[in-house]
Amino acid sequence: MINLQGVSLQMGGRELLQNADCRIFPGHKVGVIGANGCGKSSLFKLLLRQLDSDSGRVEVPTGWRIAHMAQEVAAGQQSALDYVLDGDDELRRLQRKLQQAENGDIGGRELGELHERMAAIDGYSGPARAAQLLDGLGFAHTDQQRPASSFSGGWRIRLNLARALMCPADLMLLDEPTNHLDLDATLWLEQWLQRFPGTLLVISHDRDFLDAVVDGIVSFEQRQLRLYSGNYSAFERARAERLAQQQAQYEKQQVERAHMEDFVRRFRAKASKAKQAQSRLKALDRMVQIAPAHSDSPFHFTLPAANKTSDPLIDLREADIGYGGRAVLRGVQLGIQPGRRLGLLGPNGAGKSSLIKTLAGELPLIGGERLCGEHLAIGYFAQHQLEALDGAASPVLHLQRLSPEASEQSLRDFLGGYGFAGDRAFETVADFSGGEKARLALAILAWQKPNLLLLDEPTNHLDLEMRHALTLALAEFPGAVVLVSHDRHLLANTTDEFLLVAGGRAEPYAGDLEDYKQWLLAFRRGEKAEEKFPGGEKPADDKKAQRRAAAALREQLKPLTDKLKRVERQMSQAEKKLAELESQLADESLYSGGQQEEIARVNREQSQQREALDELEMQWLEISEQLEAARES
């Protein structure tokens, strides 16, 4: 059992933990969540004995093997495969011993023991298992012999993840493992971790990933560690209920406290009431101070759109897309109209990023046409946007360069919604974390008021609160959106349709993300069959049959999926309207007198809206059950 008892920790003058307790039992899979900078990575360092707490006890069972995903990769010349194999220390030790045996340095008896131990740890399959990890994380077969130093930063992080997974561990610590993964690699990792038999602690800001993998949540809350049972969705429900109870208790206490303070004020000077007043004062001193619920996100922003637009904004006609004259996608027909919200799906390397770069005008066409509307205003977010930030400039200066006429106060107000409040707006970017740089890149994009957002993995480095704020802002953005993301919650809540990028084509995809997960599994089976039987008839026939079956299922389910999306949009509108009505009823000015008819009208509308929402929720459940039944049949 992992046991943290009375742990306090300060870093850089900030108190991260204050007398915190937490227990995690063997075999549990736990998600670690909290705002950027709250101390999640420091908690891992405590467990790894790389950091000592200021007070308290941190206990990890003696003898536990710990696998940890490092954030840096040494730029060595060893191959990617060898780098991953180094994750299994025991395997590597035995391999070195066996190499010595080949040189005649070891006797026959010891050699037999080495082979016996090698078989016991399944060591002979080590290279094959390492190759499977690399394959699952998106490395091409030809990449496995490339030097680790030849990969870019994001792919080096994938190498670190593969190396951690290679380690036969009792405890695995993964720090934001999906940050540099695409959707298909994320789905593969989910399945791998679901089968992992040991104890898992994973820092992640991907709610769907946490829902699929963990059975508990450790949340950093006001310098304490609070453990919740269940996945992330269960945590959200439990925390919301607790905060609501806490707020109600706080408000009740404040009413009682105000009443006692008023009594003391009025009767303290009167001799007949002095004793009672004194007892009220003692009661006030004894009363436990209950902090009001702090459930509001620090991030609140909108994504304003350009005043003018064109229809279509962009039109690709018979577009061949690729690099150096070699086409990755051929014959792409794609028109982006105002308000269209498109999610790009497809396996790693299929061309999703290439398509977005072409739409953005950063990648010239090999063939075909790219036609732009007169009033096209593109907001493009990709990972290189973070590298393009001026490290010597502040967030305010970045915006001032775009709009020299804007007042400093308007810039500070705007940046506040992205977490750059007060003096943070004037700090230099060089000192910012990856999450802060990503927030600034989004702020710069939003400031320019685009009517087409092209977003390639915008949630990398963003914490859960910022992802939630981005999801809400994108849902209300009036312009068009094209999105690539491994964050399924963001995809499901901000796009209306999908485009499948695979096999050199980009075509409409009628299924939902669950359908795509099944499609991806079938696609991988087809790829493996092709590797096993290159040029054979049977795998090609199987692949064609899989494609036909997937297409038939999508066509069969399309009316239901379309209906479900319509109902979800209606539910969102109804919830928004209901929130507006409840806000009106909470406004004290409504009850100032002479507005009885208005009060009655708003109450009637509230009742009608609740009934409408209940009806929509029933429809949603019925359609969801029909979809589930159709998939299983």
From TrEMBL:
Domain of life of the native organism: Bacteria
Domain ABC transporter: 2-247, 311-528
Coiled coil stretches, renumbered: 550-633
One Pfam family, short name: ABC_tran_CTD
GO molecular function: ATP binding; ATP hydrolysis activity; DNA binding
Keyword terms of this UniProt record: ATP-binding, Coiled coil, Nucleotide-binding, Repeat
PANTHER family, A to Z: ATP-BINDING CASSETTE SUB-FAMILY F MEMBER 1, ATP-BINDING TRANSPORT PROTEIN-RELATED
Similarity remark: Belongs to the ABC transporter superfamily. ABCF family. YheS subfamily.
Annotated protein name in UniProt: Probable ATP-binding protein YheS
Organism: Microbulbifer rhizosphaerae
